[in-house]
Amino acid sequence: MSSIDPSSNNSHTAQWQRQSTWLAHLRHHKQKLQESGVDGFDLLEAMSTLAIYHKLATRKDRCQKCWHTKLYCICSQLKEVSFKPRGNEALNVNLLILMHHKEYMSAGNSAKLLLQLFPSSTELYIFGKEGDVDRLFRDISSKHIKPILLWPGKEAVSTTDLLHLLKNESAYSQSEQHSLRSIYAIVLDGTYNQARNMYKSLKKKWGPSQIPTAVSLKPMSESVFHRAQKNYGKAHLQHHSKDVDPVLRVSTAEACGVLLHELGVADQDVVDGVIDAVRLNNDALKYSRHHLD
C-alpha cells in the first residue's frame, strides 16, 4: 500500500500541508493561552474566534449571505416569507439563532436561510465568537421579556403548554411597538451533539435560574435537509422517559417553520416556503460538490 508523498505536487497534498500548518498554529496558540491563565469558556471563545477568522480569510470566494461559492449563490432565489400574527391571542415571534462556530460559513447550514426568509424577525449570534453569548444575554435581558429556548430536553414543554403559560405569565409582556405578546426564541443551531453541548454551556454560564424555558416541537413530516440522506431525517431523539413519543429530527430552518406554525403565527404556506428554501440549498450543494466544506 503506497503512502502519501508530502513532496508530491498535487492539490490534495497542498491542502494537507495547509491543514497541518493550521493545526500546528492552533495547538501553539492554545498552549500560549493556557500558559497565560486562560481557561474554560474564555479559552473556548478565544480558540473558536481564531477559527472563525481563519474561515473568513480562506473562504473569500463565498457569498457572505448564503455561504455558497459566488458561482452557486442562491440569494437571488431566496424570497422573504411574510407571516402575520393573527387571532385574539396573536404573538410577535423573534428568532435568535445561536449558531455553533463550526457551522458558521458552512454552505450546508440551514439556519442561515432564516436571515433572508425572515430578515426583520431573525438575529444571528455565533457560539464561540468572543462576546456573542454575552451579547445574546444582554439583548434578551434588555427586552424585559422572558425568552424561550428551542431545545427538546427532558425538561422541555410543548408549544401547547407554552401557549397556556402565556395567558397567565406577565413576563411574556406586550411589545412596546405592537399590541401583541412578544416571544424571543433562542434557537440552538448545530448538530445534535453541538446543540446539547451549547445548552449545557449556557446553563453553566447563565445559571439554572437564568436559562430560558426549553420548548420542544412535534414535526409532522420527515426532514428534507441534505443531512437527512444519512438517516438523519428518520432518526429519533433519545428521551429519558418511555412514555414520551419519539420526535423526528429536522433541520434548524425546518424547526423554526414548525415553531411558527405551532404557535399559530404562520400557516402551512410559510412552512412550505422554508422547506422550499432548504431544498434549494440542497440543490446548490449538489451542483458545487467540489466546493463543499
From TrEMBL:
| An annotated Gene Ontology molecular function | tRNA-uridine aminocarboxypropyltransferase activity
Q: What class of enzyme is it?
A: transferase
Record flagged with keyword Ion transport: no
List the Pfam families: DTW
Might you give the EC number(s) for this enzyme?
A: 2.5.1.25
Decide whether keyword Iron-sulfur is in the record: no
Substrates-to-products reaction catalysed: a uridine in tRNA + S-adenosyl-L-methionine = a 3-[(3S)-3-amino-3-carboxypropyl]uridine in tRNA + S-methyl-5'-thioadenosine + H(+)
Q: Where is the DTW domain?
A: 59-279
Q: Which GO terms describe its biological process?
A: tRNA processing
Keywords from the UniProt entry: S-adenosyl-L-methionine, Transferase, tRNA processing
- SMART domains per record: DTW (SM01144)
The text of the family note is: Belongs to the TDD superfamily. DTWD2 family.
Kindly provide the name given to this protein in its UniProt entry: tRNA-uridine aminocarboxypropyltransferase
Q: Which organism is it from?
A: Cyclotella atomus
